[in-house]
């Protein structure tokens, strides 16, 4: 208890300094200086909300229009991910429309430190509920999930806090908005800034930043605590929930091994159609170090003939049923490479743990709500058109390929989020070889950082999502190296993947896993 009180005294002292806006550290966010100028100017604009003039509760309670809100989530007891999923469903059922999600963080406990680690995140949404009615509803949800009275700052199955409510300041006996301890909590600030964009073009975000009472808004508050340099430490880590596991993709580059069950795939078509051959290949990929096995029963090469969902399942189900049973799969992940919602549902039912959709929900929009309900990670890829049209002249037109891929891929991400797939379950694939010429592919590999930065202008959380790079043995490598046979492109694949890792790729999708693992290990070692 003495330790907790001392911690509180120290944190209060630090927070007091931040709250007065007296500190300013260098910002890791490129737009932070521009943001300070924007916020400073906006305070003088006619009609700008005065953050120091708290709106009366009567005025707020009388509102019937939707209010933009930010709600923080925390859990360190029981099945933490299931508690988050249930809380999101109950919020939706209560009329709270969730529009954005932060990343997912595993954090060390603060204040009362002798307790399990927490999962933390935050969501942004809209509601017609007044602030106190919203608080009441969130408390009901906490009780439904099993929270009872306990030690303050102690263990709890779920914790839901209102961080921001419209452009209002609220101070009553039961509710303070902005949340009074935002300024001292890294586990709150990290998810909060995920929900904001670095460009500061959003009027509501400008109001929220002004409520921080720091010249650079919540970005400055976050930076003063340590900002991005804190993530990846024991105090706070970004993670992805996969089944009952938490995957920390920042620790090392992950390798996804390709297992094609198709007769017409460009590299290994026809080799693994039989169950026995497919199982043997899966065992080989695992023995070489694969973290994930990506099983595809439909070719997506240029001009490939599209199978129906039932035809795809005829190929997939026997192999998937056999692979999930082999002991070598323990601790590994299975990805189903499909754009059909029906196939995704059946694959997860039979043991797949993630879905890899080359169309980003464009070929079968039902897949988005299916994956949301399944609660598994979702890879959304950039492609224009479909495999039969993606290399048309129209689909190959770009003025700035990285900027346009970022914009179009962000649209896919937003569609997934609005369908109920949290940001913390999304992986982005820039679609090397899909609707791209040779020069486009090279620009993307070199420009992964600029793609992240472009997304960060509208959502810092989106800029932190893991990136999957699938360039293995593709034709642009053959063009560069004069290698007509895809199998002869493994050395070129290693070189391109190493460049991709250096520029921010987190997952490599490869045919030759042994080479892919070696490339990842060396690249990771060079980054340390």
TrEMBL record:
Residues 253-521 form the Pterin-binding domain. Keywords: ATP-binding, Folate biosynthesis, Kinase, Magnesium, Metal-binding, Multifunctional enzyme, Nucleotide-binding, Transferase. GO terms for biological process: folic acid biosynthetic process; tetrahydrofolate biosynthetic process. PROSITE patterns: DHPS_1 (PS00792), DHPS_2 (PS00793), HPPK (PS00794), PTERIN_BINDING (PS50972). InterPro entries: DHP_synth-like (IPR045031), DHP_synth_dom (IPR006390), Dihydropteroate_synth-like_sf (IPR011005), Hppk (IPR000550), Hppk_sf (IPR035907), Pterin-binding_dom (IPR000489). GO terms for cellular component: cytoplasm. CDD domains: DHPS, HPPK. Pathway: Cofactor biosynthesis; tetrahydrofolate biosynthesis; 7,8-dihydrofolate from 2-amino-4-hydroxy-6-hydroxymethyl-7,8-dihydropteridine diphosphate and 4-aminobenzoate: step 1/2; Cofactor biosynthesis; tetrahydrofolate biosynthesis; 2-amino-4-hydroxy-6-hydroxymethyl-7,8-dihydropteridine diphosphate from 7,8-dihydroneopterin triphosphate: step 4/4. This is Folic acid synthesis protein fol1. Pfam families: HPPK (PF01288), Pterin_bind (PF00809). GO terms for molecular function: 2-amino-4-hydroxy-6-hydroxymethyldihydropteridine diphosphokinase activity; ATP binding; dihydropteroate synthase activity; kinase activity; metal ion binding. Its cofactor is Mg(2+). The lineage of its organism: Eukaryota, Viridiplantae, Streptophyta, Embryophyta, Tracheophyta. It comes from Triticum urartu. In the C-terminal section; belongs to the DHPS family. In the N-terminal section; belongs to the HPPK family.
């Amino acid at each position: 208890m003495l330790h907790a009180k001392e911690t509180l005294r120290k944190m209060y002292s630090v927070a007091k300094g931040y709250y007065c806006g007296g500190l300013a550290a260098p910002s890791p966010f490129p737009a932070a200086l521009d943001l300070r100028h924007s916020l400073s100017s906006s305070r003088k604009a006619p009609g700008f909300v005065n953050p120091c003039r708290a709106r009366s509760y009567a005025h707020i309670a009388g509102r019937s229009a939707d209010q933009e809100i930010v709600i923080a989530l925390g859990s360190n007891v029981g099945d933490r991910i299931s508690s988050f999923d249930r809380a999101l469903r109950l919020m939706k059922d209560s009329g709270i429309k969730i529009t954005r999600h932060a990343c997912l963080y595993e954090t060390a406990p603060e204040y009362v430190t002798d307790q399990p680690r927490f999962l933390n995140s935050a969501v942004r949404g809209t509601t017609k509920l007044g602030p106190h009615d919203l608080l009441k509803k969130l408390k009901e949800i906490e009780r439904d999930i099993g929270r009872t009275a306990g030690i303050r700052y102690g263990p709890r199955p779920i914790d839901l806090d209102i961080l921001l409510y419209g452009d209002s300041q609220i101070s009553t006996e039961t509710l303070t908005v902005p949340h009074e301890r935002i300024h001292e909590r890294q586990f709150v600030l990290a998810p909060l800034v995920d929900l904001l964009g670095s460009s500061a073009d959003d009027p509501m975000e400008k109001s929220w930043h002004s409520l921080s009472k720091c010249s650079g808004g919540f970005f400055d508050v976050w930076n003063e605590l340590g900002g991005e340099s804190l993530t990846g430490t024991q105090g706070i880590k970004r993670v992805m929930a996969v089944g009952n596991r938490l995957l920390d993709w920042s620790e090392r580059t992950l390798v996804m091994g390709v297992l094609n069950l198709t007769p017409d795939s460009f590299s290994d078509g026809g080799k693994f159609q039989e169950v026995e051959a497919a199982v043997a290949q899966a065992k080989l990929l695992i023995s070489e170090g694969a973290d994930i096995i990506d099983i595809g029963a439909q070719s997506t090469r240029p001009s490939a003939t599209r199978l129906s969902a039932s035809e795809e399942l005829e190929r997939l189900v026997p192999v998937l049923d056999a692979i999930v049973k082999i002991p070598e799969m323990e601790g590994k992940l299975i990805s189903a490479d499909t754009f059909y919602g029906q196939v995704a549902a059946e694959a997860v039912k039979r043991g797949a743990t993630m879905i890899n959709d080359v169309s980003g929900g464009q070929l079968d929009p039902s897949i988005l709500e299916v994956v949301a309900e399944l609660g598994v990670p979702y890879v959304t890829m950039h492609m224009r058109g479909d495999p039969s049209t993606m290399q048309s002249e129209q689909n190959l037109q770009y003025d700035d390929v990285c900027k346009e891929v970022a914009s179009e891929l962000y649209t896919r991400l937003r569609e997934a989020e609005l369908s109920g797939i949290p940001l913390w379950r999304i992986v982005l694939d820039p679609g090397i070889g899909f609707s791209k010429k040779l020069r486009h592919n090279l620009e993307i590999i070199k420009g992964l950082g600029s793609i992240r930065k472009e997304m960060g202008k509208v959502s810092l959380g989106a800029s932190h999502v893991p990136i999957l790079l699938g360039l293995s043995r593709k034709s642009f490598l053959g063009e560069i190296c004069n290698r007509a046979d895809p199998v002869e492109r493994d050395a070129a694949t290693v070189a391109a993947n190493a460049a991709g890792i250096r520029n921010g790729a987190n997952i490599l999708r490869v045919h030759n896993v042994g080479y892919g693992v070696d490339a990842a290990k060396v690249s990771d070692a060079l980054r340390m």
